[in-house]
């Protein structure tokens, strides 16, 4: 298993080494293999991926992030020394993730712009909008007291009873546990009522929120 675990205080960083594989297909297969081998108690951790000197496209980065999410993990950095300046850490998002280590409900009193990512082990309430390109990830429920137009992942540690609710639910992608839904490409959804997303019969369903 090519996984390096680095502890810094109470934080644990996982790094998966994919430098020995040349093709992207082989890298994805090795990534899957390593994720299956990681102990369950580390589920929900942020993982960095070391690809050495290989060039990785934005689409390939997104594919690897999707693989991590499918296994209950979250992407942190791409470690890459493709540039002439030597080794770099490149995040999919320009800003680092804001990690809130609380099992309780946290309150975020601001709008989230593109590139911002927030993770909390418990529930999350956002008094503001989640704009396209922003991501909110919670081990519990997510409530957005505004417009949800970015990505939201509730039950990120495997809780299929988690919900996502928003006053205006128009996300680029919704995830609950390992279940995913997104609007069809090119389709714009206009919502005028508060809505709630939850798992029913193994699928993410959206219904009106009665308040």
What does this protein structure show overall?
- By secondary structure, this protein is mainly beta.
- The protein has two domains: 3-90, Transcription Regulator spoIIAA, CATH 3.30.750; 98-208, Pectate Lyase C-like, CATH 2.160.20.
- The chain is 13% helix and 39% strand.
- The chain has helices at residues 24-37, 58-70, and strands at 3-8, 11-17, 46-52, 74-80, 88-90, 98-100, 106-108, 117-120, 124-126, 135-138, 142-148, 151-154, 164-169, 173-176, 179-181, 195-200, 203-208.
- Helix 2 (58-70) links the parallel strand 3 and strand 4 (74-80).
- The radius of gyration is 17 Å and the shape is elongated.
- Residues 5-11 and 83-96 have low confidence and may be disordered.
Q: Which stretches are poorly predicted, pLDDT < 50 over at least 5 residues?
A: 5-11, 83-96
- By CATH, the topology of the largest domain is Pectate Lyase C-like
- Order of neighbouring strands in the sheet with most strands: 6-8-10-12-14-15
CATH architecture of the largest domain: 3 Solenoid
Mean pLDDT: 80
- What's the number of structural domains? 2
Order of helices and strands: EEHEHEEEEEEEEEEEEEE
Number of DSSP E strands = 17
* Estimated radius of gyration: 17 Å
CATH hierarchy class name of the largest domain: Mainly Beta
């Amino acid at each position: 298993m090519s996984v390096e675990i680095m502890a810094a205080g109470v934080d644990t960083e996982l790094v998966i080494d994919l430098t020995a594989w040349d093709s992207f297909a082989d890298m994805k297969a090795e990534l899957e293999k390593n994720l299956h081998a990681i102990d369950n108690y580390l589920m929900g951790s942020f993982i960095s991926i070391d690809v050495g000197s290989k060039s990785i496209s934005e689409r390939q980065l997104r594919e690897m992030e999707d693989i991590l999410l499918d296994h209950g993990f979250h992407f942190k950095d791409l470690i890459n020394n493709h540039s002439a300046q030597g080794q770099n850490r490149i995040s999919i998002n320009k800003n680092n993730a804001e990690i809130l280590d609380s099992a309780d409900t946290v309150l975020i009193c601001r709008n989230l712009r593109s590139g911002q990512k927030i993770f909390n082990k418990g529930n999350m309430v956002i008094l503001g909008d989640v704009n396209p390109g922003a991501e909110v990830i919670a081990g519990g429920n997510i409530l957005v007291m505004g417009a949800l137009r970015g990505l939201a992942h509730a039950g990120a540690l495997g809780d299929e009873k988690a919900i996502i609710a928003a006053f205006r639910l128009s996300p680029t992608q919704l995830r609950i546990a390992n279940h995913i839904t997104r609007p069809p490409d090119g389709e714009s959804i206009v919502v005028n009522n508060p809505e709630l997303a939850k798992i029913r019969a193994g699928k993410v369903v959206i219904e009106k929120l009665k308040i």
